[in-house]
Amino acid sequence: MPTVRTTSPEETEALGEAVGRAARAGWVIGLDGDLGAGKTAFVRGFVRGLGCPARAHSPTFALLHEYRGGRLPVFHLDLYRLGSADEVYSAGLDSCLNPGEAVSVIEWFSRADGLNPPPPSLHRIAFRWVDESTREITHDLPGL
Ligand code: ADP
Ligand code: MG
Question: pTM for this one?
């Protein structure tokens, strides 16, 4: 899978912004990587790339934020506190796995590994901390 290196949070946001411009209705983008790896920075750019006016921040405590007012509604989830795929259902989040006319971007997606069925239009992005300002971002998005 392609790997991109960014050397600032702004650069990671710009990558997210490009993906936001390319995003199609129904996409689910699963993000993985340790705390501080840049997942939320990516989402901030992604939400901007879709034209939503809000500044995205981490939904770790709310599990879900919705951003509207752009080209497509965005569901921003963070599964950090979930223990298993089953909890996605018990938390009532399953509609975000098949977002229809919206798009979902999901931090700590690997918490839901084993989801059955998996989301139909799933993309995955892995974030790796390299040093204080460098992140390695591996993705399955064509043309990025
Ligand atoms: P996560 O959501 O993965 O826990 P955040 O996006 O909330 O990560 O935080 C990333 C942190 O790393 C921020 O404090 C940001 O300023 C810093 N940072 C440094 N370099 C980068 C980079 N290249 N890309 C993204 N974030 C970076
Ligand atoms: Mg985060």
Answer: 0.96
